[in-house]
Every structure is written in C-alpha cells, then in structure tokens.
Design brief:
The chain is mainly alpha-helical. It has helices spanning about 5-10, 15-20, 45-60, 65-75, 80-115, and strands spanning about 30, 40. The protein has a two-stranded antiparallel sheet with strand order 1-2. The N and C termini lie far apart (about 50 Å).
C-alpha cells in the first residue's frame, strides 16, 4: 500500500510515517512507479512494525531506543538471548503499568461507590 493508505491503516499522519521512515523505524520497499522519486510501498510487516513502535513508546522507550533495537534486530544481532532480554524488559514494563492501572482503577471504583452512596465518612484516598 502507498503512504496515504498505510497512514490511514495505522492511524498516523503521513508526516509521522515519513518521520518514522527517516528515523529508520520503517523500511518500506521502493516501487518502480514514480520515476526518479519512486513510491514507498508499505506491507503488513510495516503495519506490525508501527504497532511495535507504538507499544514500545507506551512502555516508555524513546524513539532513539526503539530505532536502536530495530537496527540491532535488522542487522542480525538478534540472538535468542538478546531477544529474550528485550522481551523480559518489555513484559516487566507492562506489568508495572498494569499495577499502576489496577491501583488507579481500585481507587476510582471506591471513589465512585463513595459518591453514589452519598459520601458518608471520609472520601477514599489514593494510595501512596
């Protein structure tokens, strides 16, 4: 698919897609169409790559860290040991986020029950 269709599919602007290509986060193939300025053609693998970038961003990775992981992976330095290390770190970050979300959800649920119950006694406090 061409850039506009790809951007629409992944929910990014074409400018962001171009930025990701420039940073090496995406590696679309070049089409023979377009002459000297050949078209970039994106595949299902590129959709997966964007989803991974979005996941890694949500885990707190910087774009520089994401680009480095991508370069490492594409260069063939993806030993099973290194891949497992990266995956463990990502799982750990997700578990931390889940714990934070569980805490927030518990607090909000208690607060809602308190409000709907007419606010008797002290309001629930967010745990430290």
């Amino acid at each position: 698919m061409l850039i506009s269709e790809f951007a629409n599919t992944v929910g990014l602007s074409t400018e962001t897609v171009r930025f990701y290509v420039g940073k090496g986060l995406l590696k679309p193939r070049r089409s023979a169409l377009g002459g000297k300025n050949s078209y970039q053609v994106f595949s299902a693998a590129d959709v997966t790559a964007v989803r991974m970038v979005q996941l890694q961003k949500s885990l707190g990775y910087s774009l520089s860290e994401i680009a480095e992981l991508n370069r490492e992976y594409r260069s063939g330095a993806k030993s099973a040991l290194r891949t497992a290390e990266v995956l463990r770190k990502q799982i750990e970050r997700l578990q931390e986020q889940r714990a934070q979300l569980d805490t927030a959800l518990s607090f909000l649920t208690q607060k809602l029950a308190w409000v709907e119950g007419g606010g008797p006694g002290e309001a629930p406090q967010f745990p430290c």
